[in-house]
Amino acid sequence: MNHRERLLCALDHKATDRVPLDLGSTFATSINLRAYGELRRQLGLPPESQPRVLSLRAATVIPGEDVLSRFAVDARALLLGSPDGRPDRQLRPDAYLDEWGVTWSKPAGGHYINVNGPFQHLQEPRLGHLDGFPWPDPDDPRRYRGLRERARALHEGTDYAVVLNLDLGPVHLAQFTRGFTEWLEDLLLRPAFAEALVERIVNVWVRIADRALAEAARFVDVVAFYDDLGSQKAPLMRPQLYRSLIKPHHQRMTAAVQRYRKKMVWHSCGSVYQFIPDLIDLGIDALNPVQVSAANMDPPRLKREFGRHLAFWGAVDTGSVLPWGSVADVRAEVRRRIDQLGEGGGYVLSAVHNIQADVPPENVVAMYDAACEISIAASAN
């Protein structure tokens, strides 16, 4: 199989010659800048003077082709451009304002975190506050400039699966613009405002998705969504509340992509077991990152209960095994996840979320080398 065939077959729940691998094709499956530099040294590769930034906010990169080829990674990222009309505006060296009016600040040695949003300090939020807000322009031409050409070069010039990354979903953006606590309170105390905020965010999202796919769908294999629904211990909200206020808008998002008949991978951290039937109902093909350390996210149970309808993308524990385990521990973790999730297809191997700065480079090498060796040995038998 070539790379694209391997990944798409896995998403179709068909057996493959080896488990497909990902590093850097989505905003949640890449590697921290510092860890990337150490990884290149470990591999004996020259340093990159200007690594391609995947996410400034998360300090992640798109790994170089020499690294991706060394690890036999099967997918490549396709990204939209930044808008001309309202690009991120630097406020000071460690802070910036994004196009949604959210202020991001970075503590020394850390990641950027959202510290203020345009609706965060409203004591009595009203629909008029939303009507008067300058929402991002989904038709800003720079978002799509060169998108078709980049997608075509990846699809026709290589045999990798092309993953189009779209913007964050309404749960994330409602939390950033309104505040985490404030928006969760709104869901119960001011549901009309909470849903109206979600609706306006999704209006922008759907238009961007439609424009991007109109440009590049012919050369795209998978579309990546991002909207966290779980914490480490539990869902962020009751499933009934999700189904009444949020799911109809998620349905609008998936419908926008389904018109173009593309595979869909949904990223949601945390304990999302209770929402998996909803994701299947929405038409999602794969769940990422499969946060195995979270409550009710036991891989054998997930595979047994949902594996006929949903593929799993991730699952190699980046919370404890990758940063703190030995090379032998990492290899054992890879074997365990392939055994649990890989039978009959339906699994794309990557770390649980981005590989962080505290992960030793030898453990990253062990993860990808073990995945290839274990898969190849299994197919040979």
Feature tags:
alpha/beta; TIM Barrel
Low-confidence stretches: none
Tell me the major beta sheet.
Answer: 7 strands, parallel
Oligomeric state of the chains? single chain
Shape: globular
Identify the strand order in the major beta sheet: 4-9-10-11-12-13-14
Q: How many beta-strand runs?
A: 14
Q: What is the annotated CATH architecture?
A: Alpha-Beta Barrel
Describe it.
The protein is of the alpha/beta class and 381 residues long. The chain has a single domain (3-79, 124-380), classed as TIM Barrel (Alpha-Beta Barrel), CATH 3.20.20.210. Helices cover 42% and strands 16% of the residues. It has 14 helices and 14 strands. It has helices at residues 3-11, 33-42, 65-70, 127-131, 147-157, 170-178, 180-189, 191-216, 239-258, 276-282, 299-306, 321-324, 327-341, 361-380; strands at 31-32, 52-55, 60-62, 75-79, 89-92, 95-97, 103-105, 113-116, 161-168, 222-226, 263-267, 286-288, 311-316, 347-351. The strands form 3 sheets. A 7-stranded parallel β-sheet has the order 4-9-10-11-12-13-14. Strands 5-6-7-8 form a 4-stranded antiparallel β-sheet, with helices on one face. Strands 1-3-2 form a 3-stranded antiparallel β-sheet. Helix 2 packs across helix 14 (361-380), helix 6 (170-178) crosses helix 7 and helix 7 packs across helix 8 (191-216). The radius of gyration is 20 Å and the shape is globular.
What's the short story on this structure?
Helix content is 42%, strand content 16%. The protein has 381 residues and is of the alpha/beta class.
